[in-house]
Amino acid sequence: MSxxxxxxxxxxxxxxxxxxxxxxxxxLIWQYPSVISVAGKxxxxxxILDIPVVVTEQYPKAFGPTVxxxxxxxxxxxxxxxxxxxxxPEVVEVLKKNETKSILLLGIESHVCVLQTALELLEHxxxxxxxxxxxxxxxxxxxxxxIARMKSAGATITTSESVLFQxxxxxxxxxxxxxxxxxxxxxxxxxxxxxxQRNFGANL
Length: 204
Known about the structure:
Elements lengths: L13 E6 L12 H18 L3 E6 L1 H4 L13 E5 L7 H9 L4 E7 L1 H14 L3 E10 L4 H13 L2 E3 L1 H9 L7 H10 L1 H5 L2 H8 L3
Helix pairs in contact: 1-7, 4-5, 6-7
């Protein structure tokens, strides 16, 4: 299959979406600590690169707030929702205000909220980069199917480390050392991330 387009990333036109990484899912989501770790890394990277962060919580009355491990206090917007997709009117306003073209998407569950967010963003002509080492579900076989569906719909399937190097694109970039240091900070967590290992095995 030929690649239809090469999707480039630039901090000024990129946003990070953190989908429903909430307290009540602890112990339920497969490899949830890895999802939280990748989300934390990407939030820190977004602060370094001045990328707006969009955070949602699915029905927090039932599923609780965003996990305490993540500092989302500086998010461009943080919303509770009942709709599965993150594509909400308030989110669209943020995207338009920042002239966003590309979305980095991670969170849970891969086959429900993450999938529906990706499909709706693609429908509205955004470039969607699914952070494969940062998405999961309660039933892990759902992950491969969801990622395959997002890929077939036009999303780019990538990893947290890959997109960070893509965002700085050159070792001479003024933020390269900070991003490189962040990657080293999370190197051990990356090595034990079974979601990443699973996606590699899935031959995506």
